[in-house]
Write the structure tokens for this entry.
Amino acid sequence: MSPAFAPIHHLAQQSRAHGPALLAGAEDPHAELLALVWGPRFDRQHAIDLWSRLSQQQPAQALPVLPALLSAADRFDTLGAPVQHRLRRLILRHRAAAAQTTRFPAGQPQGETVSWGAATRETVEPRPFTSRERTLGRLSE
């Protein structure tokens, strides 16, 4: 691995380890993650808000998350602007890939009914991107 990508790789590992618990129940987990890293400094207040929600719902699971979250904040703040920008672009790419997988699961033509679980069914219809999604998409280029 390139030394330039090592800090991003470490942040991604922490995100994979603690992100599902921290972002559980979020309408758009990628937006929550982007909110944390959007500025030149990690948004610690937003991170603490996410953590406090987790600690109220699952106190035992929240204990190891707080030190990792603060460590990630410190690591992010030490990254140079180009590396921070690359991290944001990677989150946006992951978001776009996840949206395509969710909107059009493999092997399902557009407009067909797709089973999302044993009890629920949804119709997958293409929709135009919102202006916010178009703006965020431009940042990932």
The chain has a mean pLDDT of 79. The first helix runs from residue 6 to 22.
